[in-house]
């Protein structure tokens, strides 16, 4: 496990365990919103968050807490952004209190008084310099023993955010205040009243000394702290990841850090800030942070509009998405699902996803393109007794040594060179060449080259489900 740079002021920890179902169908369990390029064409919000905390004059080594299923996406996106980090894996989701406890314990191993910054992976911030300046200002209060949060000055009476009432000024940190009280998500009238009273949005960012947070967890949520401590002490190294102990972590009560500590501690403080901020929790919020044309439309992908106003149209893949004569709508088109909603009711997409799950729609959670540690695969067609996939293997990528009981496979290489293990034989298959893998044969696919390997896989048999895979050896430990 890598050490923090104890000479740096603030040690950032990104929590990225959410699934982002309100942004379905672009965001799903298999590729949550924080890893998707919903706001920028060039990077995800997770990558943008990581980039904001790379200045070595202010920040130490980054840590990321994520669900074990997202580990390879996290590692790939960090590598793409060239940002080193410790990646700690939660075996299951236990909400933010357990994650914050692990972060504090992780930092305290090197420096008990390390100042830790907790960040969400899916927030959009308009001014990165203003954010860093706010962190530096709030860190003054954290060093003095306060558990600080950033309070966003409201721009509208939002009902999707919690609010914070600032209290008396904190003498040790100019511009900061004690937190008088927290207010859960209000209705519109309540939000208007809170803003008139000087309340700010609860951003979900926290800064604290590790020892202070551990003391407060011990006082207010000892079961959370005990489980987190055991999970970290019994953690195992797995490739470049640290796996928290599953049995220990499962004992942590499922609760938020707001409820477990922030609403109970006497050390809570807030720094009001005014930079542009959004947690892009709904499609309406995504529309608000994207560039808009003269008619108020925000578009992504291959889109054509006629007499359409105030709308978000998001199109993925090669298909064209056309909208005629609509106002204030959200249209999201992906290769296997289409969402059409009013902007005002786009927050109800989460309820829609729950209904799709109840009816066992695979599109509720799985994309047509599924990412794996070695690359990705994408379904092209499926029918009775067959399935066709497009497969991409990154340079150096290697699938598991496996066999199938119910299907044979045909691989046709369209780009690069494949190294194929077939029972006792290892062969190279070049572009425009094919190989046949009989039912029950032991086989493995690798990319020994320097460019991505792409191939078409045709499966034929009585069953082509993903669970008809018997892994004999897997370098990724699945």
From TrEMBL:
GO terms for molecular function: GTP binding; isomerase activity; mannose-1-phosphate guanylyltransferase (GTP) activity. The keyword Transmembrane does not apply. Residues 302-356 form the MannoseP isomerase/GMP-like beta-helix domain. It catalyses: alpha-D-mannose 1-phosphate + GTP + H(+) = GDP-alpha-D-mannose + diphosphate. Residues 363-474 form the Mannose-6-phosphate isomerase type II C-terminal domain. NCBIfam families: GMP_PMI. PANTHER family: MANNOSE-1-PHOSPHATE GUANYLYLTRANSFERASE. This is mannose-1-phosphate guanylyltransferase.
């Amino acid at each position: 496990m890598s050490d923090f740079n104890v000479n740096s002021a603030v040690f950032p920890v990104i929590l990225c365990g959410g699934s982002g179902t309100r942004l379905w169908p672009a965001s799903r369990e298999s590729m949550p919103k924080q890893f998707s390029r919903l706001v920028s064409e060039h990077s995800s919000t997770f990558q943008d968050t990581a980039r904001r905390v790379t200045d070595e004059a202010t920040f130490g080594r980054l840590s990321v807490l994520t669900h074990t299923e997202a580990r390879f996406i996290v590692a790939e996106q960090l590598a793409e952004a060239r940002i080193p980090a410790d990646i700690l894996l939660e075996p299951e989701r236990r909400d933010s209190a357990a994650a914050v406890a692990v972060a504090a314990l992780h930092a305290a191993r090197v420096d008990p008084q390390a100042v830790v910054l907790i960040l969400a992976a899916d927030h959009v911030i308009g001014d990165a310099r203003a954010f860093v300046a706010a962190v530096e200002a709030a860190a003054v209060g954290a060093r003095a023993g306060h558990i600080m949060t950033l309070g966003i000055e409201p721009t509208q009476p939002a009902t999707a955010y919690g609010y914070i009432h600032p209290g008396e000024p904190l003498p040790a940190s100019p511009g900061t205040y004690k937190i008088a009280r927290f207010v859960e998500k209000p209705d519109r009238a309540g939000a208007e009243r809170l803003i008139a009273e000087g309340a700010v949005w609860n951003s979900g960012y926290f800064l604290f000394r590790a020892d202070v947070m551990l003391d407060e967890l011990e006082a207010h949520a000892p079961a959370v702290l005990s489980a987190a401590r055991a999970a970290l002490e019994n953690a195992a190294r797995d490739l470049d990841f640290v796996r928290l102990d599953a049995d220990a972590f499962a004992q942590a009560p499922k609760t938020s850090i707001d409820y477990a500590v922030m609403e109970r501690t006497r050390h809570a403080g807030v720094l009001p800030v005014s930079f542009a901020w959004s947690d892009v929790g709904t499609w309406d919020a995504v529309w608000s942070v994207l560039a808009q044309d003269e008619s108020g439309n925000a578009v992504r992908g291959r889109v054509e509009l006629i007499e359409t106003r105030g709308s978000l149209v998001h199109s993925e893949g090669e298909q064209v998405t056309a909208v005629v004569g609509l106002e204030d709508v959200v249209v999201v088109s992906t290769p296997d699902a289409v969402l059409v909603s009013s902007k005002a009711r786009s927050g109800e997409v989460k309820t829609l996803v729950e209904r799709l799950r109840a009816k066992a729609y695979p599109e509720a959670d799985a994309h047509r393109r599924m990412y794996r540690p070695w690359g990705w695969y994408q379904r092209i067609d499926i029918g009775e007794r067959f399935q066709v996939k497009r497969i991409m293997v990154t340079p150096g990528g290697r699938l598991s040594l496996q066999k199938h009981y119910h299907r044979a496979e045909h691989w046709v290489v369209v780009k690069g060179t494949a190294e194929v293990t077939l029972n006792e034989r290892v062969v190279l298959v070049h572009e425009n060449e094919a190989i046949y893998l009989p039912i029950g044969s032991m086989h493995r696919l690798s990319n020994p080259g320097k460019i991505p390997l792409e191939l078409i896989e045709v499966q034929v048999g009585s069953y082509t489900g993903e669970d008809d895979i018997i892994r004999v050896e897997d370098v990724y430990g699945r």
